[in-house]
Design brief:
Layout: H1 3-14, E1 22-26, H2 27-41, E2 46-49, H3 56-63, E3 68-73, H4 76-84, E4 90-92, H5 99-106, H6 109-114, E5 115-119, H7 122-131, E6 139-144, E7 149-151, E8 156-158, H8 168-180, E9 184-191, H9 194-197, H10 207-238, E10 244-247, H11 253-257, E11 264-267, H12 269-272, E12 289-300, E13 303-307, E14 324-327, E15 332-333, E16 343-347, E17 359-363, E18 376-381, E19 384-390
Parallel strand pairs: 1-18, 2-3, 2-11, 3-4, 4-5, 5-6, 6-9, 9-10, 10-11
Antiparallel strand pairs: 1-12, 7-8, 12-13, 12-17, 13-16, 14-17, 15-16, 18-19
Helix pairs in contact: 5-7, 8-10
């Protein structure tokens, strides 16, 4: 029996009393992935990206482990909810235009001390001030650096279009603007290198493309390491008491941790290890989060149909954004239909061994987005479900 077949047998036994659709997290795999992230971080704390987890119970579990400290959130409403739930170090990784949220933040000393918000434009400072509604608390702010690699005089750009702050001077000017404005305190810098951390460099069946990605990423790492150090020096000249410099992502943990100026690493997807993280040479993890769909039809030889399953991930539309049939091994989508909203036909010889009501296990393309489809995660240890915990959705929280 292969390791994957053994996992399927475990998951089927653990959930035999549960009807699909359902989602699980294999805690043995989750904990092993957490340990691997800590090992790669080389002693620097990991700030957990909540959008990649979207389950308070699992955020609490990982933050109880040595090597993890703080949350990186994705909306202001989520940040305030987490802070009210007892999480006392929440870094909002994206700028916000939530007026009601800023009024709440600036009117509550507990929230203001727990939540740090992201800025990259002086207009954001004015927006926050206009939203205060009488709130006088000092707002902790973090400056976001644009990590993209620019080549050929800026005519070619590699990396996400995030912050407009690219040069050390630009970031220092932003720090100066925030530091001079009453009611704000600059406490950190964030630089997420998604073109390195979030792009696999071992694309199956594409050796030349994979080599090109590795060469480009090596160039981007060198350029960013030098520029990030310069940015930190420039900002510390303005804000000597800077508390943290955050960088990285699941795919680049060990590389970013090697930079002296970086004080903490941001990561989260590496806990669940969705399918987009199968194509990396820098690390390998164990799939920990899966969902099961029930067989509801057997249209013919080599074909079964499962209920639902059309859960595409965000990003540029493409085959790599689709969930993948994982267990039993050997199933594939019908190219004329793909995964459907209500039903999904699956092809392959394993289909002939599946009966009505049997579970087919899938892996999502991304990590936390799976939790937007399910209100609970069944936590599996060995061949038993030892707990069932709500996702954000299960707690009535859908932030985006």
């Amino acid at each position: 029996m292969t390791a994957r077949a053994a996992d399927r047998a475990r998951y089927d036994r653990a959930t035999a009393h549960l009807d699909a659709p359902l989602a699980i997290v294999d805690l043995d795999a989750f904990d092993a992935n957490a340990e691997d992230l800590v090992r790669r971080a080389g002693g620097k704390p990991i700030r957990v990206a909540s959008k990649s987890v979207r389950c308070r119970a699992l955020l609490e579990r990982v933050l109880a482990k040595d090597g993890f400290a703080g949350i990186m959130s994705f909306t202001l409403a989520e940040s305030l909810w987490l802070a009210r739930s007892g999480f006392d170090d929440v870094l909002l990784a994206y700028p916000s235009a939530d007026r009601a949220g800023f009024a709440e933040l600036t009117g509550d000393p507990k929230l203001a001390s727990a939540v740090t918000v992201m800025i990259d434009d002086p207009a954001q400072l004015r927006f926050i001030d206009d939203a205060r509604d009488g709130g006088r608390e000092v707002v902790r702010v973090c400056l976001e650096l644009d990590t993209s690699l620019r080549m050929f005089g800026g005519r070619v750009r590699v990396g996400a279009r995030r912050s407009p702050l690219h040069s050390p001077a630009q970031v220092a000017d932003m720090a100066r603007a925030a530091a001079r404005r009453p009611g704000f305190e600059v406490v950190g810098i964030m630089a997420y290198e998604g073109h390195i951390a979030g792009v696999g460099d071992a694309v199956a069946g594409r050796p030349l493309r994979s080599r090109a990605i590795r060469l480009l990423q090596a160039t981007a790492r060198r350029e960013l390491a030098e520029r990030r150090a310069e940015v930190v020096r420039a900002v510390r000249a303005v804000v000597p008491g800077l508390e943290f410099v955050n960088g990285g992502g699941t795919g680049s943990v060990q590389h970013t941790a090697a930079e002296d100026c970086v004080t903490e690493i941001g990561a989260g997807s590496g806990l669940y290890v969705p399918r987009l993280f199968d194509n990396y040479t820098s690390f390998s993890g164990r799939p920990a989060a899966l969902f099961a769909q029930p067989v509801v039809r057997r249209p013919g030889v080599g074909v079964v149909t499962v209920l639902g399953g059309g859960y595409p991930a965000s990003g540029a539309a493409g085959h790599d954004r689709l969930p993948v049939p994982y267990l039993p091994e050997g199933l594939r989508y019908d190219p004329q239909e793909g995964p459907g909203e209500v039903q999904t036909p699956l092809l392959g010889s394993p289909a002939d061994d599946l009966l009505i009501g049997d579970k087919v296990w899938f892996r999502h393309a991304k990590a936390g987005e799976l939790c937007e489809r399910f209100d609970a995660l069944h936590l599996v240890e060995g061949d038993s479900v030892t707990a069932t915990v709500p996702t954000y959705r299960g707690e009535g929280r859908t932030f985006l």
